[in-house]
Amino acid sequence: MLAPWEVRLTQLSKGGFHGRLDFARIGETVIYRERWSRQMLVDGLSPAGYFMVGRPINPSGIANWCGEDLDAGTVACASPSSELNFTTPEGADQLVMLVPKSRVIDSSDHGTLVRFPFDCDRDGLEVGLSRARALRR
User: Fold this and answer.
1) More exposed terminus of the chain, fewer Cβ within 10 Å: N or C?
2) To 10 degrees, the CA torsion angle through 17, 89, 3, 8?
3) How far apart are CA 27 and CA 89, in angstroms?
4) What is the DSSP-derived secondary structure letter of residue 43?
5) Which residues pair with 68 in a beta bridge?
6) Residue 70 CB partners (closer than 8 Å, separation 6+)
7) In this structure, is the dihedral angle defined by the CA atoms of residues 128, 134, 135 and 137, taken in order, positive or negative?
8) Which residues are bridge partners to 113 per DSSP?
9) Which of 14-18, 95-99, 125-129, 131-135 has the lowest average pLDDT?
10) Which residues are CB-neighbours of 44 under 8 A, at least 6 positions away?
């Protein structure tokens, strides 16, 4: 489907696990929804060459994204190949988008930058506004 995720999933709650992954690919961008029936710990690296943006939908509890509480009103972001460490509540339902680095960063763009503070490496994710607008079209 795309560059491999380098993550380990550990089930934290007892009982049988049921998961589901639905996805759509638009060019090189991948949007997917994942559902996990049990509380999970996920650690590892985000895919090389992709920025990740995600958020819980239909939350059954609060997820923890790299030490920060993540509810339905918060967006998680990760740079390509950045460290990930998060837990999900039981009944997790998440929407995730992977955007190729080439679609987000333009070295010739010297405009205003938007900073997403929830990158696990704590350096944040900066996106040129002109490119961010282009992604919305």
Assistant:
1) C
2) -70
3) 32
4) E
5) 65
6) 55, 56, 62, 63, 64, 76, 86, 118
7) positive
8) 128
9) 131-135
10) 5, 6, 7, 8, 83, 84
User: Residue 30 corresponds to which tokens in the numbers above?
Assistant: 């991948």
Contact at 8 Å (CB) between 97 and 135? no
Q: Length of the chain, please?
A: 137
Q: Which residues contact residue 91 at a Cβ distance below 8 angstroms, ignoring those fewer than 6 apart? A: 35, 36, 37, 60, 61
Dump pLDDT digits (tens) for 38-60: 999 999 988 888 888 888 887 67
Lowest mean pLDDT among 17-21, 84-88, 129-133: 129-133
With a CB cutoff of 8 Å and minimum separation 6, the contacts of 25 are 1, 31
How far does the chain reach from its first CA to its final CA, in angstroms? 24
